[in-house]
Design a protein that fits this description.
single chain, alpha+beta, 7 strands, about 40% strand, globular
């Protein structure tokens, strides 16, 4: 089951955000505040047996939706949960395109989901980043 996360103070949520961003507590707290206070931010969870197993965070815009955070608990990776979260966003968004940024490890996942990939070059020392874009043609 996928549903919007409303309790942004849950320590389990902090753990999931640490999987997909810098695990510095202040940065995670700031992102939780952003999801709580900014009207264009939404955070969804995927639950199995009533337990959180993955998250996806969005920044919704009029022309595009940005996938800001996506993380699956390590024990539940490679089981299609990330794909289900992306499919949920694709079906529920009103934007013409969905964008994300990832590293080399995430590129194949986005290709599998139908995203077009563009290298952003070495955005950080020694780290190549990629822009992932999905054209939402069902609109």
């Amino acid at each position: 089951m996928i549903c919007k996360i409303s309790d942004l103070s849950d320590p389990v949520l902090f753990e999931y955000l640490s999987y997909c961003m810098s695990p510095v507590p202040e940065r995670i707290e700031e992102e939780c505040r952003n999801y709580k206070t900014k009207t264009n931010r939404e955070l969804y969870g995927i639950y199995l047996s009533k337990r959180l197993r993955g998250i996806i965070g969005l920044i919704r815009g009029e022309l595009e939706t940005e996938l800001k955070h996506i993380a699956i608990h390590p024990e539940f990776r490679m089981q299609g949960l990330g794909s289900k979260l992306i499919e949920y966003v694709i079906k529920s968004t009103r934007s013409n395109k969905i964008i994300a940024e990832t590293d080399k490890d995430g590129v194949n996942f986005y290709i599998k989901m139908g995203f077009e990939i563009t290298s952003l070059g070495e955005k950080y020392p020694g780290v190549e980043r990629f822009r992932c874009e999905y054209s939402n043609n069902h609109l």
